[in-house]
Design goal:
The complex is a heterodimer of chains A (426) and B (205).
Chain A lengths: L19 H6 L4 H7 L3 H11 L11 H6 L10 E6 L9 H7 L1 H15 L3 E6 L4 H16 L8 E6 L9 H8 L13 H4 L6 E5 H5 L1 H7 L1 H5 L9 E8 L5 E6 L4 H7 L9 E5 L8 E2 L9 H6 L8 E6 L4 H15 L5 H18 L5 H14 L6 H27 L18
Parallel strand pairs in A: 1-2, 1-4, 2-3, 5-9
Antiparallel strand pairs in A: 5-6, 7-8, 7-9
Chain B lengths: L4 H8 L9 H12 L4 H11 L3 H8 L13 E6 L2 H19 L12 E6 L11 E3 L2 E3 L4 H13 L15 H8 L15 H11 L3
Parallel strand pairs in B: 1-2
Antiparallel strand pairs in B: 1-3, 3-4
Classes of the chains: A alpha/beta (426), B alpha+beta (205).
Chain lengths: 426, 205
Amino acid sequence: MSKLTPVLSAHWDEKDSFTIEAYTRHGGYTASKKALAMDPDAVIQLVKDSGLRGRGGAGFPTGMKWGFIPQGDDKDHYLVVNADESEPGTCKDTPLLMANPHVLIEGCIIACHAIRAKHAFIYIRGEVTHVVRRVNAAIVDAYKAGHLGNGIDVTLHIGAGAYICGEETALLDSLEGFRGQPRLRPPFPAIAGLYARPTVVNNVESISSVPAIINNGAEWYQSMGTEKSKGATLYSLSGHVNNPGQFEAPLGITLREILELAGGVRTGHRLKFWTPGGSSTPLFTDAHLDTPLDYEGVAAAGSMLGTKALQIFDETTCVVRAVLRWTEFYKHESCGKCTPCREGTWWLVQILRDLENGTGTEADLEKLLDLCDNIMGRSFCALGDGATSPITSSIKYFRDEYIAHLTNGACPFDPVKSTLFTGAVN
Amino acid sequence: MTLNNEVMQSIIKRYPRSRSAIMPLLHYVQSVSGYVTNEGIEKISEILDIETAEVSAVATFYTQYKRKPVGEYHVGVCTNTLCAVMGGDAIFSALKDHLDIENDGVTADGKVSLEHIECNAACDYAPVVMANWEFYDNQTVESAKALVDGARAGNPPAPTRGPNRLVTYKEASAVLAGLDDGLAREGLQAGEPTLLGLKLSKEGK
């Protein structure tokens, strides 16, 4: 029996999978019909019972989040879908929306009903023109078919290039027409979110998982996954592997199993380090091949499941170069609101550059760790924390490689060897 | 072309509060002028009844809003870690040489501009190049050069996952303002990596 369980991805191989015709052909919009006939609290209970947890990285139980919305408060409620997929390595929501945007629209209808919201916003990153077209067309078609516009509206909001807007409160500020900077919490979005109204912010994959749960029941969803991490999810395999791609599997599958399916690490090479859930999750090595990729398993091994973005790097890759590049990313994307992150990421880059080109000293390693200690837990939001993950974990596993840059007086790696077109570089 | 009041009002109507329309209005300004002009900022401030400084504050926060003209085809090479390691750095360096421009530069003919970009959510297609924010997957130095050469000659290759032709920067900006260009049904629903897990499961693996 296959280890894979395509649900979200079940019909992606049909040429017209993104159209309302294809979605309806496979039972699309029957779950929303069913949910709309249910009591909203019963929908929340069903999602709670399913065990569905947030697929955007944090893994917070989705039904519980919905349950935080105050009821009978006579205020407008909002659903906001976080489609600002930008965490390095993360590439699941974008192909999902390109191949089947209607499952998200249907999920929005169900979630709006459950939390008694009349208006949902989908905040999509601005760097994916064709995905924007597909989602926009899906919304238009859902209105034409009468799924939207009868008490529930969906508005597509398109971002403009800012990783920080994936942070839910920065996203809300951005959606309100401001610079995307995180807000102080409390109050949490469930109490004062968009326009200071009770708001649920959920990831694309979380909301898209809801229609199948409504149709197949909580028990069906519970039957997949592990004790505390229920259901199936999209694992995105990229990097130095023979066959990269999307693998929808029950939570708890291991990298070893996924690599076997993908034909292994690129031929003639071996696994050196990898991220379990994007660049903000501490690095793993070949010692973690059998770590169950669920929320608890990855946490117990010292990292985070995050977005299940499995970025694979083989032995040709310089870990210092990799970490420097991620750190440059965090520096660029730091919104500037808080000092530890704004100043800290700048200094991290300076020191890492010296280390990578061999002009640093061993004392710089301690300085890096000290800086990380001053950023971690002291930043306004998780961006600063995330910036420290690749640094502290790489020093933990590859301190010798940092030292080798210093004794060598330069990076000991040949970057050409890690490209996919070795020998073809001018 | 000038900014159309009706279009701007239709964008504002999407939101319960008008200020939320700043971002799509800025994309709309870029669709008309090719970048965020001072006139565009003034127009938005007038129509939303807020200060120009408030509009500028937003325009300067987000990297997709350009304060000077970019090329008709704006090319972004992903140089975040994974793409960089797998060839993005080599592609970016080769394109700078080939076009004789630096990061954020525009060719003298105004056809192509170049920028190194962050992760664009297509890591299973690395190395990735974007042109007017359309996907060019699994790129090499040669394919990226062919892309910019085609763009300069006025016939760029079609995106690998996108419509049948590469639209211009202004046309793409209109899509990002939420305006329909009728091309949603063109192009692939998914590339091979997207379908890999599904294919394997159908083979019983």
